[in-house]
Amino acid sequence: MVALSQPVTDRLVMPGERIGVCVWAADPLSRAGTVSQLRGTAGIVLIEEVEVDEDSVALVVADEVDADTARTIRTLRRRGVDKIALLVTRLDDNGLLMAVEAGVAGVIRRSQATAHNLTAAIRAVAAGEGALPPDLLGRLLEQVGHLQRRVLAPRGLTFSGLTEREVAVLRLLADGLDTAEVGQRLFYSERTVKNIIHDVTSRLDLRNRTHAVAYAIKQGLI
Question: 20 pairs with which residues across the strands?
């Protein structure tokens, strides 16, 4: 398994620390088998759904990533469960993207799910990191690059959901310029600048231009 470079949460999982894990599976036999494999594993405490908190890991077990699996993951996210690992039998490129988009932080194939590998993936997710088998990491990066080149770039978009023009406007606002000055700097009319700000705040459900600038800073865009 390899760890993806992601910001580590404020609370690190220390070696030997016990991690609460709740197993979700549509198939009762799959759930029972996974629970049986994890039971007694050092550092893992099996918990029920009502016991899940921000430090727990949800382990979703599925044959493949289909609409039902993605719905389960999104439902967990809406409940405030941020640390989600996926134990899956089959995973194609579309399924991998669907899982990541839904909010999965770690993936492990059932064929590779030894007690050691499964525990390592769970610990990585609990620490706020990502975990993928090396071949899946390569495929994910390839898919992300394809999405940027073929879908987003031709439309002037980035993964943040902002266009280059919008980023340029927000960057100048962050420097303290007003809309008239931004227009002069970018050779836009002030009305165009105001329309750009309105588009950003409306599309991303932001309150005002200050909120939009704060969003751009938080996303690392400016």
Answer: 45
pLDDT at position 209 is: 85
- Asked if 186 and 193 touch (Cβ cutoff 8 Å), the reply is yes
DSSP symbols for 145-186: HHHIIIIIGGGTB-TTS-BHHHHHHHHHHHTT--HHHHHHHH
Are 140 and 96 spatial neighbours (Cβ–Cβ below 8 Å)? yes
The string of pLDDT tens digits covering residues 13-62 is: 455 578 999 999 988 999 999 998 898 888 899 999 888 888 899 999 99
Given 148, 180, 201, the domain boundary residue is 148
The span from the CA of 37 to the CA of 165, in Å, is 52
| 137 and 27 share one domain | yes
The residue assigned the tokens 């996926």 is 86
> Range of 124's domain?
2-148
Predicted confidence band of residue 4 (pLDDT cuts 50, 70, 90): very low
Of the three residues 90, 125, 148, the one that is the final residue of a domain is: 148
CB 108 within 8 A of CB 118: yes
Structure tokens belonging to residue 62:
């599925």
State the residue for tokens 């309105």. Answer: 198
Q: Is the pTM for the entire model greater than 0.85?
A: no
**67 Cβ neighbours under 8 A, 6+ residues apart:** none
144 and 164, same domain (yes or no): no
**R_g of the chain computed on alpha carbons:** 21
